[in-house]
Amino acid sequence: MTGRAAIAVLLATGCGAQLGGSSGDDGNFETTDAKVWQDAAIDAPVDARPCMGGTAAAVAPDGSCLVFVMTPVTNVNAKAACMAMNAHLAYLKSATLDAFAEQHIGMTDAWIGATDRTTEKTFLWDDGTALGYTNWGDGEPNNGGDTYQEDCVIIAGSRVDKGWDDRPCDASEVPTSGNFAYLCQY
Question: DSSP class of residue 61?
Answer without folding.
Answer: T
